[in-house]
Amino acid sequence: MDYIIEMLGITKEFTGIVANDGVTLQVKKGEIHALLGENGAGKSTLMNVLFGLYQPEKGVIKIRGKNVNIDGPRTANALGIGMVHQHFMLVDTFTVLQNIVLGMETVSGGMLHMDEAREKVVALSERYGLRVDPDALVSDISVGMQQRVEILKMLYRNNDILIFDEPTAVLTPQEIGELMHTMRGLAAEGKSLIFITHKLNEIKEVADRCTVLRRGKFIGVVDVASTSKETLSEMMVGRRVDLGIELKPQVAGEPVLTVDKLRVSSRRQGQTKDVVKDVSFIVRKGEIVCIAGIDGNGQTELVYALTGLISPDSGSLVLNGNDITRQNIRFRNTNGLAHIPEDRHKHGLVLDYNLGENLILQRYFNDEFQSHGFMRRDNIIAYANRLIEKYDIRSGQGAFTPAHSMSGGNQQKAIVAREIDRDPDLLVAVQPTRGLDVGAIEYIHKKLVEQRDAGKAVLLISLELDEVMNLSDRILVIYEGSIVADLNPQEITIQDLGLYMAGSAPGEVGRDVH
Amino acid sequence: MKLFSKLKTRILGFLPSILAIVIGLLFGLVILLISNPSQAMGGFSTILTGALHDMRSIGRVMYFASPIILTGLSVGFAFQTGLFNIGTPGQFIVGAFGAVIVGIKFPQLGGGHWIVALLASVLFGALWALLPGILKAFANVHEVISSIMMNYIGMYLVNYLVQNTIYDRLRNQSIAVAKSAVIPKWGLDKLFPRSNVNAGFFIAILAVIIIYIILKKTTFGYELKAVGFNRDASKYGGINERRSIVLSMVIAGALAGLGGGLLHLAGTGKYIEVIDVLAAEGFTGIPVALLGMSNPIGILFSGLFIGFLTVGGDYLQLYDFVPEVIDIIVASIIYFSAFALIIKDVIQRRRLRMGGEKEQ
Fold it and tell me: Model confidence over B168-189: pLDDT tens digits?
């Protein structure tokens, strides 16, 4: 069998880091080839080499059996290589059609001819089931549609080697399903797809073969159908990964958080709408309570109200016997509340600060870190080093690593370390594993369970059904701002949970909530 | 060895500023060549060395630098805390008015008179930045818009107040301050004879040191910078982000106001003129801050450098250049200093490309 792409012994070094160390990737025509690895394993670097954005120090690239030198995206394009980047490369103020033809416009006498282009785009979009509105502005369309525009861009250029860089990270479950379908259709047409991901389920679903990278090194290439998920994750992480969690039986203790008739309204476009409607629940010592629900059902606002980022319109919050409804964030932070935020770049980290400065974000005013208003630098560095060690945060320059230069997984680890190390009575963790690879997910799950086992309360907000089912002592289902069910994960199936989340109660209607 | 590499990165950090200066100077040379080719080289070397000609010239550099170090510090401090304080001309002139009115009306204060007058300039400048700070913190009004407006309000208000309180009708300016309100020389007049340098220069250096310490060493600076970098994360961390924004703006205003006080209490015949022009020293703070990379120590040196050019430029008249040419040259260097940031950006990107620290 001939390979359409062969990358042999590719080595790419950055100062201090060997991002690719003699990596080999061979892709057959018409296959979906997965490229699997943890965050920072060198997947993106390898693809940037193939796309001509980086020049490798060593190695040979062959396309369709011929040695090639790819010195830029233009050359890559001429060779039929197209890429859907993780962060889309679209002009927001242009229409879908304008974006697709950008750089390939049909011009005569200095005037644009869009009619032909439009026909071609419409034909392509029908042929591959890629629904787009050619005249909509990119800034107005959903992320899913933006991705379809990116795919159409590649097809419009007659590319037959298509690279997808973590395409599912930004999509909803339905959109992921559609994308998988499209990818299979493209492969059936004879296109060759490289699918970069760290999600094993998706690989099992669509990929034919899979190349695994770990810390810049080539680990192996396997046939997906005959390889188990366990084997794949072991290859990726380098050790056995155990995602099955066993919660040892434990009786929940006294209430830590009591939420009573909490109501939050949002004013958007002149309309006032309740986004959290009279929510009441209790979280006790030694239990993980999970709020499950489809994204956008009031979880964000509920968490903001709990943690003080917004103030509720009515209702009350009691933490450890203190009424915190009207207390500020500092009070909550220093009285037993910790918060792993949903958006680690917006709330979690000051990206321009270094790791050490970020690790003391809620504690810089403690005597340990300041005296008479002056920062105690040595203590801050020592503390950072301790957390780096204890929580295995990987960073190039220790406490001095700029937060923005760390990988997503390690940024999240830093936040988790900071929050757990404050020894909170209540830990509010919002989608703590989003976008992370299995190794990091396993780690964070373990930490949450440790908190619980130590008799602390954990409130987990998650969209991932597996996580919800495996990790919680109790599941509260939120739907359109109300808690519609209080469930025991031992007594419910994942399908029923899905139905509750979709707003329809199987069998019975919402039981009493407490 | 480690110390050496640290020093090296420090110096490399100011590389863009140095490049901007070189480009600006070369551009100035071109202008000299165009306007009077035969004298151009002599004129050019005067710009570079004139200010080192004698002790008096060095004293003059320090005198010119003092107020613009403070307005530069004002802009730079605001930059470091995420704000663009373009309101320095307003804060400068309002601060000057505060200093002058106290300097005229309270001669009974005696030996401490000039100190009280300077404190008034700090207070007035701070007050003038308070409103843009509050608007930014509570209503999300961009500080550039509100402080530009405050510049004009400040200018006309000071004109009005001068005319109604401390007006010298004959010269269309404020009357002279009391002798006791003039900043003392502290022996600088002996060291740098016939120059106007005074203790104000030490006050500027003191301000540089204080701002440096606040930004680098204190929890207060940690809070202000955190809010500047990421308001949401600061709020999440329990920092009162609104208070921080107001305080940043107020401190920036206080610095600019002090600059106004230093200039108008120097006892050098500098009065508040009733004209409809924004204070140039205020705007000069922006290039001073840019050239100094918003670093307090950098600002000290860039302020001195601009003062150096101003003094060197004065001597250009000996070479038959009209004074306007001097202004063009100084302005072009200032102009190119704005490119310092762009050059910094280019250098950083280049470095990333050659081998980034970041993998993904």
Answer: 999 999 999 999 999 998 888 8
Which residue in chain B is spatially nearest to A328 when comparing CA positions?
A: B238
Collapsed DSSP state (helix, strand, coil) of residue A202: helix
Compare all CA atoms of chain A with the CA of B355 and give the residue at the minimum distance. A14
Cα–Cα distance, A410 to A38 (Å, whole number): 11
Hey, is the C-beta of A78 within 8 angstroms of any chain B C-beta? no
A95 Cβ neighbours under 8 A, 6+ residues apart:
A134, A135, A136, A137, A138
Nearest to B219 among A15, A42, A375 (CB): A375
Assess whether A500 and A398 both reside in one domain. Answer: no
Closest partner residue to B237 among A13, A361, A374, by Cβ?
A: A361
In a domain, B27, yes or no: no
Structure-token pair, residue A333: 């932070």
A370 close to B (CB below 8 A): yes
Residues A157 and A99 in one domain: yes
Cβ atoms of B184 and B114 closer than 8 Å = yes
Reported ipTM: 0.85
Confidence of residue A143 (pLDDT cuts 50, 70, 90): confident
CATH classification of the domain holding B322: 1.10.3470
In one-letter notation, the amino acid at residue B208 is: V
Instruction: Show residues of chain B in contact with A396, CB under 8 Å.
Output: 357
Q: What is residue B1's predicted lDDT score, i.e. its pLDDT? A: 47
Residues A182-230 have pLDDT tens digits of: 999 999 989 999 999 878 888 999 999 999 998 889 999 999 999 988 8
Looking at the fold, whether A83 and A198 belong to one and the same domain comes out as yes
Domain boundary residue, one of A407, A423, A439 = A423
Residue whose C-alpha is closest to residue B353's, from A430, A82, A72, A132: A72
**Domain termination residue (choose one: A391, A423, A455):** A423
Name the burial class of residue A116, with classes exposed (0-12), middle (13-18) and buried (19+) by CB atoms within 10 angstroms of its CB. Answer: exposed
Query: Is the pLDDT higher at A348 or at A495?
Result: A348
DSSP type of residue A84: E
Residue of B nearest to A15 (CA): B355
Q: What integer pLDDT is reported at residue B298 of this predicted model?
A: 92
Q: Where are the alpha helices (DSSP H) in chain B?
A: 2-13, 15-35, 40-49, 55-80, 88-105, 113-139, 143-165, 188-191, 200-217, 219-229, 231-236, 241-264, 280-291, 296-314, 323-337, 339-355
Task: For residue B46, tell me if it sits in a domain.
Answer: no
A410 interface with B at CB cutoff 8 Å? no
pLDDT band at B357 (very low <50, low <70, confident <90, very high): very low
Indicate whether A71 and A214 sit together in one domain. Answer: yes
Which of A453, A451, A448, A229 is closest to A462 using CA atoms?
Answer: A448
Task: Retrieve residue B334's tokens.
Answer: 């200032």
A57 lies within 8 A of chain B by CB: no
User: Touching check for A488 and chain B: CB below 8 Å?
Assistant: no
User: Which residue among B232, B238, B358 sits closest to A346, beta carbon to beta carbon?
Assistant: B232
Answer whether residue A247 is part of any domain. Answer: no
The parent domain of residue B153 ranges over 54-343
The whole-angstrom separation of Cα B333 and Cα B114 is 35
Nearest-10 Cα torsion for B334, B338, B340, B342? -160
CB contact under 8 A, B357 and A40: no
**Full domain range(s) for residue A375:** 344-423
CA–CA dist A389, A387 (Å, integer): 5
The residue-averaged pLDDT of A436-448 equals 85
Residue A470 CA, chain-centre distance (Å), reads 19
Q: Do A350 and B217 touch (CB under 8 A)?
A: no
CB contact under 8 A, B358 and A328: no
Which residues of chain B have a CB within 8 Å of the CB of A328?
238, 240
pLDDT of residue B79: 94
